[in-house]
Amino acid sequence: MTRLDIPDLAGPQYDRADLPLTAGIYICTTPRTASFTLCRYLVAQGWGVPTEYYMAFTAHYLMWRWQIAMRAADEDAAYAAYGRALMQYRVVNGIFASKLMAEQLPLFRQVHPGGFDGGIRNIFVHLRRGDLAAQVASLVTAAASNRWSFSDVEPPYLVMDLRFDRESVDWACRYVVECERLWSRFFREREITPLRVRTRTLVEDPRTVVDAIAERLALPVDEDALAVTIDQERNGEYGSTRAGKERVLREFGAVIETHQPAYAAASGNEVAA
C-alpha cells in the first residue's frame, strides 16, 4: 500500500458507493494540523475516503468529473446535486468521511442544505495543533512555497498568498485564532461533543486516535492496515520545510507571542486526546 498524496484522494479510483449510508465522519480542523495524515488512517481502515470536499477547487473538479453542470443562475441546485453525488460516489463500507475547514462551512451548507444527516451516526473529530507558534510557522512556510504535501506537489492555484514577513505572520495568527473561535461556536450552538484530538497525539500515538474513532463507530480496527499506515507515516516526513519554519520562529516569534492569549481563549483550554 503506497502512501496517499492529497490529489490521490479525489481520484476516480476511489469512486464507489458501498450503501446504505450508516455513518459520517467529519474532521473539523484548520491548516497544518496533520489532517491528511488522519485522512490516510481512515482510508486504510476502510472508513470513507476523506478529503476537502467543501473546498471550492475540489468541489468544482469533482462536479466536472461527475458531469454536474454549474450555471450561475442555478448555483444552489448545482451544489445540492454535488452533495447527492458525494453520497453516491464517496461512501465506503457505509461511511462518508470528509475534512472540513472552518471557512468551508458556508459551502457545506450549500452542498447539504438540509445540514448533517440526522438519520445516521455522525462523528465529529476536532483536530487541533495546540501549538500556535508551530502551526503558524508551518502555515506561512507552506503558503510561501505553495507546497502543502509530503511529495512537494504544487497545486495548480495559489492556496494562500503569504510571505516571510511580519504582515503575513500576523495575518496567519489571526486566521488560526478566528478558525478556532468558529469551531468552538459551531460545537456549542449545535450541542456537539466532538472527539478532541491534538496533532501531537495523532503523530506520536496514532493508535489512540484510531481506537477512539473505532469505538464511536462501533467497528473493529484493522490491525494489519494500522501497522502499515503507522510505518508509512513515521517514515514519510514532509519535504524541506525546516529552514522556513525556523525562520518564522526566529524572525517573528514576538509577533506570534502577542496572539497567544487570544488563541488560548479561542481554544477554551480544552483537554484533548
Question: What is the fold's blueprint, element by element?
Answer:
Blueprint: E1 16-17, E2 23-29, H1 35-45, H2 56-65, H3 75-89, E3 90-91, E4 95-101, H4 105-111, E5 121-128, H5 132-145, H6 166-189, E6 195-198, H7 199-204, H8 206-217, H9 223-234, H10 242-257, H11 260-267
Parallel strand pairs: 1-3, 2-4, 2-5, 5-6
Helix pairs in contact: 1-9, 5-6, 5-10, 6-10, 6-11
Written overview of the protein:
By secondary structure, the protein is α/β, with parallel strands linked by helices. The protein has a single domain (6-267), classed as P-loop containing nucleotide triphosphate hydrolases (Rossmann fold), CATH 3.40.50. Helix content is 49%, strand content 11%. It has helices at residues 35-45, 56-65, 75-89, 105-111, 132-145, 166-189, 199-204, 206-217, 223-234, 242-257, 260-267; strands at residues 16-17, 23-29, 90-91, 95-101, 121-128, 195-198. The protein has a four-stranded parallel sheet, sandwiched between helices. It has a two-stranded parallel ribbon with strand order 1-3. The radius of gyration is 18 Å and the shape is globular. The chain starts with 15 loop residues before the first strand and ends in a 6-residue tail after the last helix.
